[in-house]
Amino acid sequence: MIEKKRLISLDAFRGLTIAFMLLVNNAGDWDHVYRQLEHAGWNGCTAADMVFPFFVFIMGVAMPLGIIPQLERGISIGQLGRNILRRTAILFGLGVILSTVAFWSYMDHFRLMGVLQRLALTYLFLAIIILLNNRSLEAALFWVILILYAGALFLYASTHGDSSFALPMFYNLSDLIDTKILGSMNYTYDKILLLGHDPEGLFSTIPSISSGLAGVFCGRMLLEYKSAMHTFLKLILSGLGMITLGFLSQYVIPFNKNLWTPSYVIYSTGWALFSLGIFFYLIDVKKYFKPFYPLIAYGSNAISIYFAASIVAPLTVGIRWIDAAGESVRLKTFMYKSTYAQLISPYFGDYIPSTLWGITYVILFFFLADWMFRKKLFVKI
Asked: Of 357, 42, 33, 341, which Cα lies nearest the Cα of 175?
């Protein structure tokens, strides 16, 4: 059984997710990004598309590890509820701060939703479900949410000329609902069509609850495990089963991160289970801590590192000046072209320096993660 100590493999898995997120979010040149380091244009799934559902899954795993022991110690639902609402508000508020910085930096309109906002809303619903303390309900809701969401998408598509179920941007149920609610505060908003789309929109947050519920179910299993090898095999085999089911389900409803389609949820959940199983075996069973230290440090302050990196990156884009030729120059463009592009592109092409810019972010923010870990500064939200 997992005791009060942290599940180190979960920290490492979270650290890998955050480090990869920084790499994916910080290309030096967005016109030159390796296929697996950029999100699928619409339907489809790349390695980059796994980052966000992994983080939602990891959040789900951690929640019963934190909430269930508190319930068992007799902490009241009221007190837990206040803590949950507080964390939800802080996460959402931090997300709004990032949206504000992005608006100042490069966006031509304010966007309400974002990564942290979706995490906040998903966290709130997961916490309410966990407080009901009904495992059968949690398992049932995972599938009920996905089936109802898929049914709603299918029904709208079939009655609005999308017989091939391509789910085109703007012309799908999720974007329609987000346009009605968020209007121009979507990530993308066509001022002529008056239609919006947001990859972290409100309606597509509903199936993200299923991604988190898969993590909750996994967290409950880790709370109760007696045999390490049995748990390892359960994670691996469950992951392989979900990967297979998800891969097959894409032929019914396509993978689509932007809409968080059910096939995408199942497929990404499978890879999350499989990945956690590998980390669990290597770290918590075989005790290989040292090789994974950088990831453990990253994962111990994941939200803090993500927030800091997400402030710095748009600041380098937003800071700009007029050069001698009268052209507007952004700080990031100046730094990238005068270093990586100028020194590396002539010899290795444009893709390698673009990737190295993102790797530099990962390395620089590791120093912050390492310093916080060594100083035992763990920011609790």
From this structure: 42
Tokens 């304010």 sit at which residue?
110
Cα separation, 188 vs 274, whole angstroms: 34
Q: What average pLDDT does the segment 171-195 reach?
A: 96
Contact 34, 355 (CB under 8 A): yes
The answer on pLDDT for 200 being more than 60 is: yes
Rounded to an integer, what distance in angstroms lies between the CA atom of residue 28 and that of residue 116?
23
pLDDT of 1-34, one tens digit each? 444 456 899 999 999 999 999 999 999 999 999 9
Token pair in block for residue 372: 């916080």
In tens, the pLDDT along 258-269 reads: 999 999 999 999
pTM score of the predicted model: 0.95
Instruction: Supply φ then ψ for residue 275, to 5 degrees.
Output: -65, -45
Pairing of strands 195-197, 320-322: unpaired
Residue 378: the pLDDT is 92
Residue spans per domain, the chain: 8-134+201-374
Q: Taking a C-beta distance cutoff of 8 angstroms, is the pair 118, 257 a contact? A: no
Letter string b/e over residues 55-76, b meaning 16 or more CB atoms within 10 A of that residue's CB: bbbbbbbbbbbebbeeeeeeee
Burial class (CB in 10 A: 0-12, 13-18, 19+), 34: middle
